[in-house]
């Protein structure tokens, strides 16, 4: 017994030392992993609604999850550049993509080679908000309803320009529907995002524009523009005085747009669930909800499976309108 005890003590001491060393080596690795910021790719410029919402969400997730979340703006091509960047990112949970429906629903149907396929290259994490879009006019048009605007355009034959935040977008196809309904020569003028388009609208460089209410609401409240029609089946609670397109006879724009979070295909399911749970908790916080609603967005969390079904439905609906317009993928 006396000879075995020292050996036993030495073996236990050696094991404890090895364990201590292994934990000491593991701790920096874990710390390094958690110290790396999670990138949230955004396909539109700083100052716009998508960017602002992404920054609000990133701030709350950083506080909630104890890890830094940073917005990485990869602007251009209606979000295509950011979408391709997500496809190329490692599926390790360190890169996410905050996208509106334009990038994941419209771009794949209007470009011959978009460079990504949402159905196979992305994993839907969760829907964050629903967003109505609206037609806004400069006060100089004197228009308060679509009928007023149509009359103004017909009398000002060279003033039918309608700014839109991206080429081959829902607002552009809506401009075509609008012209048909009004019997007026409306023509879409594409911009690189809603923010620069709204800047030109309030500056009088263009008389009208269609983009999300998140881009229009602050300027509407300031009296710098007037929203005369909104999408959806019901009026927006954020702008109850503005009638819907459908109320004014324009059919085909009853669906709401959305903003949602995606991860690269192959991201482990537990990582996806962790982000889903964190996002659900974050969106329940009154402060964040107030900020997003202040941008003209309706907080409406939905898990990835629900988001996937909404994408499929919108792809079918807008696909029909795109083909009916005669648009050819470019």
UniProtKB/TrEMBL annotation:
Signal peptide residue numbers: 1-31
Record carries keyword Signal: yes
SUPFAM superfamilies: Periplasmic binding protein-like II
Taxonomic superkingdom: Bacteria
Keyword hit for Signal: yes
Sorted UniProt keywords: Signal
InterPro entries: BUG, Bug_dom1, TAT_signal
Record-stated family: Belongs to the UPF0065 (bug) family.
Protein name: Bug family tripartite tricarboxylate transporter substrate binding protein
